[in-house]
Design brief:
Elements: E1 18-25, E2 33-37, E3 42-49, H1 62-68, E4 91-92, H2 114-132, H3 134-143, E5 145-149, H4 152-159, H5 166-171, H6 174-194, E6 199-203, H7 212-217, H8 227-250, E7 255-259, H9 261-270, E8 279-283, E9 285-286, E10 302-303, E11 310-312, H10 320-332, E12 338-339, H11 343-347
Parallel strand pairs: 1-3, 1-4, 3-4, 3-5, 5-6, 6-7, 8-11
Antiparallel strand pairs: 1-2, 2-3, 7-12, 9-10
Helix pairs in contact: 2-3, 6-8, 9-10
């Protein structure tokens, strides 16, 4: 659930002549996006995300998109101009505060969770069929890249929300909560498949206990990451990897790819000097808190001198420098970062 930095960028994929990108995001106050892409003799990229922190996945950085030929940003689903032929080149369904579970982000009011993002995609799919016909639409979707990055908000803005989640934590164990998430996610990914998706990249949840926000909310951790949120993320990630393997074997012609964002960020945290960072604990854009994690970045915030030296842009999101590293490793990384194949290899599969 790491949110993107000061610039939110998506990776696009190629499979032909035209680019089409559809983005589904679960954004929380530390928003991030999940994405899905689709293609027709072209590349259609669909993104589904929670907009939270570590959900950098494919929607992270411009360089990979430029390398693959993607031009510009994917237009948001709710924009009045996102209609007609534009939808054949990509749509962003991202929403701040959303999650896998429909109750996630309720404190933010009108967020759009993954179920509703999929509803919106279904509407786009119907519009595509009306525009180019059913066969062409199905061909487009089957060749498209779908990237789904979601789940962190379900912890930060649901189960781990200070004060508001106290009662839930007493009634529902961490294991039970994660199982509820996985059960719901199974239905959602299966629905995405049934709507025509075949090339689907799913990112896991990053080390949310290392966020400046979590560090300031749990000062007893000192300069270390907060262990409990990270344990929750790892519990989810273990089950998510099994879910992806299950769907890969049970859904005919589906190509699911597991993006291990947790591993990549953990490596950066442990070896930050070698990656060019000086600060991995604090937000570059800050207002209050020892680590600048208590108040979101805004007009009254102060900004560090060199954001490229900071792992985190604000209390919840990695910096552009961090996103670039993550994006490169997802695009061309080995099986430790993304498996069974990387994004470039997935794009080139038939």
């Amino acid at each position: 659930m790491f949110i993107l930095s000061d610039k939110q960028i998506i990776i696009a994929v190629v499979s032909g002549i035209y680019w089409t990108v559809f983005v589904f995001l679960e954004k929380s106050f530390a928003s991030q996006a999940s994405s899905v892409s689709v293609l027709l003799h072209s590349t259609l990229h669909l993104l589904f995300t929670d907009g939270d922190l570590y959900q950098i996945l494919l929607i992270c950085i411009s360089l990979p998109g430029q390398e693959l030929g993607f031009q510009g940003f994917t237009p948001p689903y709710l924009a009045p101009s996102t209609k007609g032929s534009m939808i054949l080149h990509g749509v962003n369904y991202a929403s701040g505060g959303g999650g896998i579970l429909n109750q996630t982000g309720s404190i933010f009011g009108g967020r759009i969770n993954l179920d509703a993002q999929l509803d919106n995609f279904a509407n786009t799919r119907q519009d595509m069929m009306s525009s180019i016909g059913v066969p062409a639409t199905l061909e487009l979707l089957q060749g498209a890249l779908f990237s789904v990055t979601i789940g962190a908000n379900d912890f930060i803005n649901n189960y781990l929300t200070p004060v508001l989640s106290t009662a839930e934590q007493k009634l529902v164990s961490p294991e039970s909560f994660v199982e509820i998430m996985i059960s719901r996610f199974r239905l959602q990914l299966t629905r995405l498949y049934n709507l025509g998706a075949r090339k689907i990249v799913v990112a896991n949840v990053g080390p949310i206990g290392c966020l400046p926000y979590q560090r300031d909310m749990n000062p007893s951790a000192g300069e270390s990451c907060v262990s409990y949120p990270n344990q929750m993320a790892q519990l989810f990630n273990t089950k998510l990897k099994s879910l992806i393997a299950e769907l890969s074997s049970s859904l005919q012609e589906a190509k699911f790819v597991h993006a291990d964002v947790y591993h990549i960020l953990e490596d950066i945290l442990q070896n930050y000097k070698s990656y060019g960072f000086d600060n991995i604990n604090s937000a570059c854009c800050y207002v209050a808190g020892y680590h600048g994690g208590l108040i979101p970045c805004g007009p009254l915030s102060k900004v560090c001198r060199d954001r490229s030296k900071y792992l985190f842009w604000d209390p919840y999101h990695p910096s552009d420098a961090a996103n670039l590293l993550i994006a490169k490793r997802l695009l061309d990384g080995d099986s430790d970062d993304i498996s069974p194949i990387n994004i470039r290899q997935l794009v080139n599969t038939l």
